[in-house]
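Design a sequence for this backbone.
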């Protein structure tokens, strides 16, 4: 979209329309007038006025009505002189309802129970059963995850795996517990800013972190932070506002009244945060953490109880150690090596690594210092919200292993005078016991590589390293090491220092998060020759700087928790507490957002500038937080943070938020939304098919407390939803896309549900909810060059996880899972609020031949011969019902029985190996029912493949 150059009449009209917009919206005294489209100009555009509840229209045949929705649908049909379709039969209705609400077909027992239930509320009971199923959150979570561009990898070149599945589980659980939609949105945009935010609130902000990330060697990390920001704006625009706000990134929007300044004022809400990472715990692990914490506090409280003078003793200790450290002078260094890793430099002299993370390399930094005498060097490893798990290292767990620490000193006046510093001694505030590297750091060399005491960083052996892994719960803390040279360095006119950090303790594959590198660090020197690493944590020294009478109970407890470890007589209690730490659960890292609070360098608030033509290298006018003028204003008391933005998004006065959401839910049920452009409610959107119904649904949704399950109830209980999907020639001619809603929905289910139907029908489905993403069978070559940029790990599941729902399949953006891609699943590159639906021969080949579907057919065959009855006719009906829900017609049964006989004959003639067909292996099937031969089982496997490949099997009828 190009910005106009001249002030045309059209532009003048646009400006006038913007000025009149509040007046036009506020004077819409007729609800139908507010809900109806009024043309394709900005002036009074219906979607820019807050929805008002329209009157429910009168109809001529009220007997058809089930819910208020039907009034609006029937009024349109009567106006068009079209009759609604009759109600679908009960079997069809339950299968449709089950696929819609939980994404799984009903079992034979569930269908029989529904058919046998003749009560007036039989259908309503099924609605409630399915809404209360834990699989409901999986089904509807998939829709939101599309909009949230969820994936399990970074995208771009390396497409490294990322750990963010806890966000996916948060979405599932939030929907299952019917979290109101306004709170659902607020949590994802600003959960970390809520008062007393919980782990769930922090995890929810993963919504903002689902953007792609480029860690290709040589990229500028700031460029791709900005690219992620643009993606977040696009996602909020599509998923929540339903506006194409991304069109204003480079210039004023060509059609909608969104100025470029509006774009960057919204942008400013998101531009003041850290790309954070958090260690999370399952509910069981959280209970374990709480219990361990309680026990530790009780042990410390007992120490205080039996030591009445603990406060005085602790104060005396503090007085002794407060000033026992030498003066350290930071060496301001810059990268003097290659540009693989990129670095941020901070005012306190610290450096943070970013972007590409090589697994084996030597970092080179150069700095100068005017001290004439250097007696010791200090390396501080510092935590940072932008590092994995908060750092201080760059491994997934936030750890680092320093193989060798080397220093070269160069005389500032005589560059030929160089000294390779030899170190005599090294101390650290913490080193883990020497131990072999974990499997994720395997370099395939076969060498024994270990990490442990800090002395290993100066032993001249690149296969040993200083390690700082204190174990779960205590890993992610600042650490420090002090290195004493054999001889002090004396340079009267200053010195240039070259620091080299040899980091050889990563794995073999830099595309798979196998680095073990330093994250944020700072180098310092001192003239003292007897320095040792300060054992007192930096957090405790910060408390020392505060007058004792001003310290909070929590700060006093922090000091006590360290001090007690220094008291010999507390040894027994200290050992008990140390043993409790050993029980701390491992936890799982996940990506989150965290506000910059200005507490230290690198944490300062950012300024936001309009970018000329959207180029991050061309900042222009500075802007502050704000919202587009044509939408509802921010309240005067609004928080100017992301929390303020989140609350503004779900304000009752928001003209689009509720409309956009109910429209997408409607789209999931009927194939098309009431507005057929779910991502665009601007002036170029399609007219709503039922404008009054859209506004009624939006108002009803908000009035119900933003309850999503209430919205589902109102739709699935309507007569419009329960109609038969059979289409007459007249309807096909008059309304081919069912925009008038004169019939029920009939279209192919989504990619994940195609797979889930096969798993469910075969009995293989693992119904577990949540957890890590899984690796079902896939062609091995896909994850190797040249199909993939670099080698990717795809460890094929062998147990029950092989048969998890499609929602849990690991999602590489650059190598989408073939089965899901064949059925039009998006790969998470950007926000998707409307999946495409295609019909290709490749899809039939997938369901016929893909490993998972073949295994489903074999499992279904086994079920059929074991539980389907004694005769082939009984078994065929059983197989048919497991797959389609309904019983076969006589013609269908005869056709399938004929196929079964042909297959038996084909196998008997030796054309195919029955063992391989029945089991996938050249092995005799075991534990077959009496009278069933391997050849019969193989024939049933062929028939099962046919059943799983029927169009009706993967269609919501």
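Sequence:
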């Amino acid at each position: 979209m190009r910005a106009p150059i001249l002030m045309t009449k059209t532009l003048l009209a646009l400006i006038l329309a913007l000025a009149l917009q509040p007046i036009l919206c506020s004077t819409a005294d007729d609800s139908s007038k507010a809900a109806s489209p009024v043309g394709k100009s900005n002036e009074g555009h219906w979607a820019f006025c807050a929805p008002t509840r329209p009157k429910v229209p009168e109809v001529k045949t009220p007997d058809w009505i089930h819910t208020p929705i039907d009034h609006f649908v029937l009024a349109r049909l009567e106006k068009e002189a079209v009759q609604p379709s009759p109600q679908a039969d009960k079997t069809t209705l339950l299968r449709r309802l089950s696929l819609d609400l939980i994404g799984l077909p009903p079992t034979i027992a569930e269908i029989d129970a529904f058919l046998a239930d003749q009560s007036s509320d039989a259908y309503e009971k099924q609605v409630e059963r399915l809404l209360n199923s834990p699989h409901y959150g999986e089904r509807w979570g998939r829709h939101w995850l599309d909009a949230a561009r969820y994936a399990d990898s970074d995208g771009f070149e390396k497409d490294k795996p990322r750990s963010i599945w806890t966000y996916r589980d948060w979405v599932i659980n939030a929907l299952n517990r019917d979290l109101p939609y306004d709170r659902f949105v607020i949590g994802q945009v600003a959960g970390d800013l809520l008062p007393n935010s919980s782990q769930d609130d922090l995890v929810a902000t993963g919504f903002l972190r689902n953007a792609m990330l480029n860690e290709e060697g040589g990229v500028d990390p700031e460029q791709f932070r900005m690219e992620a920001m643009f993606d977040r704006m696009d996602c909020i625009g599509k998923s929540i506002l339903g506006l194409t706000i991304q069109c204003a990134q480079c210039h004023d929007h060509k059609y909608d009244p969104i100025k470029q300044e509006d774009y960057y004022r919204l942008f400013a809400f998101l531009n003041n945060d850290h790309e954070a990472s958090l260690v999370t715990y399952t509910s069981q692990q959280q209970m374990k953490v709480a219990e361990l914490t309680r026990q530790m506090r009780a042990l410390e409280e007992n120490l205080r109880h039996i030591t009445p003078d603990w406060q005085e003793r602790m104060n005396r200790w503090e007085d002794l150690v407060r000033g026992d450290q030498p003066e350290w002078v930071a060496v301001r260094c810059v990268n003097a090596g290659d540009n693989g890793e990129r670095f941020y430099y901070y005012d306190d002299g610290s450096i943070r690594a970013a972007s590409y993370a090589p697994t084996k390399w030597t970092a080179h930094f150069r700095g100068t210092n005017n001290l004439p005498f250097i007696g010791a060097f200090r390396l501080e490893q510092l935590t940072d919200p932008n590092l994995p798990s908060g750092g201080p290292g760059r491994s997934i767990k936030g750890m680092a292993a320093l193989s060798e620490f080397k220093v070269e000193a160069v005389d500032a006046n005589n560059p030929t005078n160089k000294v390779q510093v030899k170190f005599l001694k090294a101390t650290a505030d913490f080193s883990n016991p020497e131990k072999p590297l974990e499997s994720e750091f395997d370099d395939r060399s076969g060498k024994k590589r270990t990490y442990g005491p800090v002395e290993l960083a100066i032993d001249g052996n690149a296969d040993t390293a200083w390690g700082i892994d204190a174990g779960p719960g205590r890993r992610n803390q600042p650490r420090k090491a002090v290195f004493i040279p054999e001889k002090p360095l004396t340079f009267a006119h200053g010195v240039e220092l070259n620091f080299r950090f040899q980091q050889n303790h990563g794995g073999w594959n830099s595309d798979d998060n196998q680095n073990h590198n330093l994250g944020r660090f700072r180098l310092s020197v001192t003239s003292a020759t007897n320095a040792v690493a300060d054992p007192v944590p930096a957090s405790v020294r910060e408390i020392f700087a505060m007058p004792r009478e001003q310290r909070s109970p929590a700060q006093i407890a922090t000091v006590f928790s360290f001090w007690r470890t220094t008291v010999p007589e507390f040894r027994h209690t200290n050992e008990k507490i140390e043993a409790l730490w050993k029980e701390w659960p491992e936890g799982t890292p996940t990506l989150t957002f965290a506000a910059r609070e200005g507490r230290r360098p690198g944490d300062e608030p950012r300024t936001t500038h309009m970018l000329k033509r959207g180029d991050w290298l061309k900042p222009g006018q500075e802007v502050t937080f704000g919202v587009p003028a044509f939408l509802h204003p921010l309240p005067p008391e609004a928080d100017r943070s992301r929390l303020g933005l989140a609350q503004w998004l779900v304000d009752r006065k928001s003209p689009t938020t509720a409309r956009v959401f109910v429209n997408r839910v409607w789209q999931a049920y009927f194939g098309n939304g009431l507005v057929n452009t779910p991502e665009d409610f601007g002036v170029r959107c399609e007219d709503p098919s039922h404008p009054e119904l859209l506004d009624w649904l939006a108002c009803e949704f908000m009035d119900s407390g933003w309850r999503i399950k209430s919205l589902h109830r109102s739709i699935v209980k309507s007569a419009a939803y329960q109609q038969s999907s059979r289409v007459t020639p007249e309807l096909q001619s008059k309304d081919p896309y069912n925009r008038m809603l004169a019939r029920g929905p009939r279209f192919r289910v989504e990619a994940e549900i195609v797979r889930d139907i096969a798993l469910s029908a075969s009995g293989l489905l693992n119904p577990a909810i949540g957890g890590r993403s899984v690796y079902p069978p896939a062609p091995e070559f896909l994850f190797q060059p040249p199909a993939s940029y670099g080698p990717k790990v795809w460890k094929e599941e062998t147990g029950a996880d092989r048969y998890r729902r499609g929602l849990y399949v690991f999602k590489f953006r650059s190598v989408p899972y073939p089965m899901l891609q064949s059925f039009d699943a998006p790969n998470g590159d950007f926000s998707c609020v409307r999946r495409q639906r295609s019909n290709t021969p490749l899809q039939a080949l997938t369901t016929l031949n893909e490993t998972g579907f073949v295994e489903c057919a074999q499992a279904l065959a086994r079920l059929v011969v074991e539980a389907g009855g004694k005769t082939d006719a009984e078994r065929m009906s059983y197989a048919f019902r497991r797959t389609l829900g309904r019983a076969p017609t006589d013609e269908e049964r005869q056709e399938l029985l004929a196929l079964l006989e042909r297959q038996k004959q084909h196998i008997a003639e030796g054309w195919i190996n029955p063992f391989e067909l029945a089991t996938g292996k050249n092995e005799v099937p075991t534990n077959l029912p009496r009278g069933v031969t391997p050849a019969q089982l193989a024939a049933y496997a062929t028939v099962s493949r046919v059943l799983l490949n029927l169009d009706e099997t993967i269609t919501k009828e």
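The two ends are 41 Å apart (CA to CA).
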